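Hey, I was hoping to borrow your eyes for a little while. I'm sending you its amino acid sequence along with the backbone structure tokens. Take your time with it, there's no hurry, and the full record follows here.
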Amino acid sequence: MNELVVQLVPLVLVAFRLSGLFVFAPLLANVSIPMPVKVLLCAAMAVGVFPLVKAPALPADIDFISLAVIAVMEVLVGVVIGLLALIPVAAVQVAGVLMGQQMGLGLAAIYNPALETESDLIGELLIQLAMVAFISLGGIEVLFLSVARSFEAVPIGGFSTGWAPVHHVLPMLVSGFDLALRVAAPMLGIILVETIATAMLMKTVPQINVMSLGFGLKILLGLSALILSVRIMDSAIMDHVAQAGRELLWSSGRVATPAGGH
């Protein structure tokens, strides 16, 4: 029994940390991926990472409650890493929702079973673009590599809430809002100009039914702006996703640095 605890328990704890990625991480948290596939992928990665991890010296008489607390802490480490990776992808979806609302497509909301949320057509289009950028830049590899590197800074059983990487979350949130505004700004500017123009037309020529004309014109201008700015949006998304990956790799090696530490 003692030999089983020494050999098997650290491997299971490594798998628990990796399993946290499947809560929020882009693509990995997709509910369309069958649960057995997620379990097999997590187990395979745990077997690959375990030889690189310094196994903790667990006491032979450790009880189940202590192991459960350690397992929950390990899952939280993976959840935080996955959440940081999700921020740029979620920011792109927020930009799509803003654009769809201004175009008048808010009523055409659809249910996305992959994310278990409602979104409009523009939001779904842009989140697929963000997913392509995430995969093409090696986002999945970055996620697993970040978890593997986190064992250097946060050994098994060494995570505590006081050592959470809060100082990394705020800059990434700011970067996410910046990305959402950069993606949505061209269309929002054109819609603003169109709204002002139709308002002036309604005041000068009241005989024209501006309401029926404005809805169609707003959608037409919005789609035209979306098509013309796809290349610019793709460049902005790629830059932010790549920057998020670099920040994730850098912060994973320092996630356990206490406040005021070096």
